[in-house]
Design brief:
- The chain contains eleven helices and seven strands.
- It has 271 residues and is of the alpha/beta class.
- The chain folds into two domains: 204 residues, Vaccinia Virus protein VP39 (Rossmann fold, 3-Layer(aba) Sandwich); 55 residues.
- The protein has a seven-stranded mixed β-sheet, sandwiched between helices.
- β4, α7 and β5 form a beta-alpha-beta unit.
- The protein starts with a helix and ends with a strand.
- The relative contact order is 0.12.
């Protein structure tokens, strides 16, 4: 484990101009900024044009709240950024540090986004073949072309393959992969049973394969994850346990919560 962590520590992504995007999308900042500006305009109109003081006060309060939200989102975006606070990269290091993978065979990254975790895995295990799948919703601005360009720039294009996919129904046979990873994906899939998503990911993992599945595991979405890990062990998994990534990646749950990831936890083990 120490050797794997050391090798990860010297891997720095994004040093050749790659675009890995951000977990706090620019669209969120534009929305908050636009609404703050609109509230400010309506406040001015309420006071100056309509002479409705109470309504103007409501719009002033709304504008202030939205401005605070905008500043908070901008700070979070800076914290996450490659070349900024580096939290995206730090979390990826934590995820892979708990994957007890020998680097042989195929690794699947469910919800690969901009390809950052897939590419880090390829750089960590140079003998592995990495497959990244994503639905690529337009909200984050990620896409297959972005992933392929980043992999080419980082020198791992021959190791990586990226394709469109749906985490609800993975387009792979049972027991196709030697390792599976995922990072902050499942909570974004609206209407889906989160444990069903985990089971679908684990379906394509070979017996004896390893997994590290990190997400914002709110109890109202996931239920009791310690019980779920026990359920997997009862099914015959060699190992399944929960890692508190809010503590490990961010330093504390409070710090993680300030970055909107206070319930970060990871299901890890071996099938």
């Amino acid at each position: 484990m120490q050797d794997r962590n050391f090798r990860q520590a010297v891997i720095r992504l994004g040093t050749h101009g790659e675009d890995y995007g951000n977990w706090m999308p620019g669209s969120m900042l534009r929305l908050a900024g636009g609404l703050a500006a609109l509230a400010a305009v309506l406040a001015v109109l309420s006071f100056a044009a309509f002479h409705i003081t109470a309504l103007g006060a409501v719009f002033v309060i709304a504008a202030v709240i939205l401005l605070v939200l905008l500043l908070w989102c901008a700070w979070i975006r800076r914290q996450y950024a490659f070349g900024g606070g580096g939290m995206m990269e730090q979390v990826h290091q934590v995820v892979l540090s708990h994957l007890n993978f020998d680097g042989q065979g195929q690794l699947l990254d469910v919800g690969c986004g901009s390809g950052a975790l897939s590419i880090r895995a390829a750089l960590t295990w140079r003998a592995a073949q990495v497959v990244g799948i994503d639905y690529w919703s337009p909200a984050y601005g990620y896409g297959q072309a972005m992933c392929e360009k980043n992999a080419e720039s980082e020198g791992v294009a021959a190791q990586c393959r990226f394709q469109h996919g749906d985490a609800n129904r993975l387009d792979f046979p049972d027991e196709s992969f030697d390792a599976v990873v995922s990072n902050y994906v499942y909570h974004n899939i609206t209407g889906a049973d989160k444990r069903a998503l985990l089971r679908e990911t684990l379906r394509v993992l070979k017996k004896g394969g390893v997994f590290a599945l990190n997400d914002e595991m709110k109890p109202r979405m996931y239920g009791d994850m310690e019980a779920f890990a026990q359920e997997l062990r009862d099914m015959g998994y060699e190992d399944a346990h929960i890692i508190d990534t809010a503590q490990e990646a961010f330093g504390s749950r409070r710090r993680a919560a300030r970055r909107m990831l206070g319930d970060s936890r990871m299901l890890v083990g071996r099938k």
